[in-house]
Predict the structure.
Amino acid sequence: MREVEAKIVLSDCTLLEAVEDRVKRLGGVLRGEVYEKDLYFQHPCRDFAETDEALRLREEGGRCTLTYKGPKEGGRVKSRLELNVEVGDCDAAKGLLERLGFKPVAVVAKKRRYYLLGDVEVALDNVEGLGCFVEVESKRGREEDVLEAVRMLGLDRFPSTTKSYLELLLEKMGSGFRVRGGEASKGG
Amino acid sequence: MREVEAKIVLSDCTLLEAVEDRVKRLGGVLRGEVYEKDLYFQHPCRDFAETDEALRLREEGGRCTLTYKGPKEGGRVKSRLELNVEVGDCDAAKGLLERLGFKPVAVVAKKRRYYLLGDVEVALDNVEGLGCFVEVESKRGREEDVLEAVRMLGLDRFPSTTKSYLELLLEKMGSGFRVRGGEASKGG
């Protein structure tokens, strides 16, 4: 329900392998490798850039999940409400959302290998058009678990960001999309 | 995708049995008996009473379906766009929709026995707080199939309505909800 995570920016995708070795040495267990295609929407009458919310359809391995993310909360790591609903079919859900006035904003696609390491999940992400990142997320919603894992993995010497991939992608595209602390949206 | 149906208003629920006998004599095949609980929503910034649209979460036998209905089109029977998406969990979907600003308007609950009769589906409905109805829907989206089945079943001597159960229920409740040809919504 609550997403509490740190996002580490790797300067180079070849670093992913070293991080993965470290995760394994610390006892991390590979949980899966997935290709996730995320479609983000803008609200019909609420500016998600202002409200710092997000609505996303995620397609992965033939499954589709609709996710709402609430505004980011204060703290040293990224923390926000996250509500997930499985849906039967991403295309049908997209069509229905569009009828309700939600507008597709951008697609974020990534290859992710994720490990369970104690009480945190460590995701090794290669994001199309953006580069490589490590996300460390607490399964118990505890900020201290995230910070400890980041330290143990030696990731505290890399820069981190509280921005979402959507936000980073739209920034990089230098599009007409406005970005304001949270998710991004088409500028009015 | 397109809902094309006639809704017959029975003056008395005891008439359901006679209609069912007739459906069976004509070769109708019972497809199921269900208890459907439908929760209707109002749009965060669009007046569904004005636009004649509807958004519904239907719970039935542990399954949940999200449905969008478009404005009713002209014709002798009720015809409108209908988009359905299966969702994993009605409570989770309701929570997510509410976060997006959709507001629950009313619940329509009914017991339905439905038959397949040639190219039409005949539903025998007992709607809580409203009474009994027969819905005849074309599986091929053809108005003439609906009209023929209504005639064959001897239902053309009963009144019919193009109003939805939601609309009929809100009218009966005499609530502060405004009703305008289509679905209903809370008056401003």
User: Anything to note?
Assistant: Chain A touches chain B at residues 43-46, 53, 55, 66, 68, 70, 81, 83-89, 92-93, 95-96, 99-101 (CB under 8 Å). Residues 178-188 of chain A have pLDDT under 50 and may be disordered. Residues 118 and 168 of chain A are 29 Å apart (CA to CA).
